[in-house]
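Bumping my old thread because nobody answered last time. Still need a sequence for this structure:
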């Protein structure tokens, strides 16, 4: 099924998405990779505020290449999501509703997705230049010293993703293999 959704994302919308759905996101999403996740985790451990509100937000695991003249961002392909698995359950418990990356997630992340009515999307790896075309604005909002791993606020329009793990725990990586094996 094809769906067009707005970000930030409310839980009711997240709960309507199903593994395998093609989704186009319009609105505000954030980027954060390994180093930024580590800093956010450390901030939480020390009782410090996070640089952005988690409630309803979507984090894209991505570190862009430099922007060409006249463009808001360079190539913007997804990072392997499992590198954030240590940190994701805590952020989901704080209200994060969506994550975008590539690859499988740990059992702990899958359980946190279900517990919080969230969703994990995949963006197509190797298509960073194409994905960048859906990014209309980019602004570093935290951890500028991390360079490409700084947290950015992105304004996106029809950003293409696929639901991999939905709010009920259905996992496209598992169901697709079963379907393929039937052939």
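Sorry it took so long. Here it is:
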């Amino acid at each position: 099924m094809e769906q067009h959704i707005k970000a930030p994302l409310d839980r009711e919308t997240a709960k309507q998405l199903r593994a395998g759905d093609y989704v186009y996101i319009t609105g505000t999403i954030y980027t954060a990779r390994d180093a930024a996740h580590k800093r956010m985790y450390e901030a939480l451990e020390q009782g410090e505020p996070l640089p952005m509100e988690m409630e309803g937000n979507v984090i894209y695991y991505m570190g862009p290449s430099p922007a060409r003249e006249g463009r808001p961002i360079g190539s913007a392909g997804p990072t392997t999501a499992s590198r954030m698995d240590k940190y994701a359950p805590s952020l989901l418990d704080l209200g994060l509703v969506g994550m975008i990356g590539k690859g499988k997630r740990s059992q702990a992340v899958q359980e946190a997705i279900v517990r919080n009515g969230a969703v994990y999307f995949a963006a197509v790896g190797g298509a960073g230049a194409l994905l960048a075309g859906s990014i209309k604005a980019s602004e570093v909002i935290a951890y500028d010293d991390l360079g490409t791993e700084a947290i950015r606020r992105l304004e996106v329009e029809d950003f293409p993703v696929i639901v991999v793990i939905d709010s009920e725990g259905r996992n496209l990586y598992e169901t697709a293999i079963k379907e393929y094996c039937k052939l």
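The helical segments are 11-16, 34-45, 88-93, 107-116, 128-132, 172-182. Let me know if any region looks off to you.
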